[in-house]
Amino acid sequence: MYVRSLTTITSQLLRRNLGYTLYTSGLNSWLWTIWGKNIHTHTVS
Question: Which branch of life, at top level (predicted)?
């Protein structure tokens, strides 16, 4: 019983961590894309 609850908790934590990592990485790449575009347009003009 104890082991089962422990594995459930760990799996939930892992899933949450994975979602958080994917979310932050997606947000970071999105920000980098916008930032890079801004830098590019500024240097061109």
Answer: Eukaryota
Q: How far apart are CA 34 and CA 27, in angstroms?
A: 11
Q: Quote the tokens at residue 15.
A: 């899933």
Q: In whole angstroms, give the CA distance from residue 39 to residue 45.
A: 10
* Single-letter residue type at 11: S
The overall pTM is greater than 0.70: no
In whole angstroms, what is the distance from residue 17 CA to residue 35 CA? 26
In one-letter notation, the amino acid at residue 21 is T
Instruction: State which residues form the domain around 33.
Output: 1-45
How many domains in the chain?
1
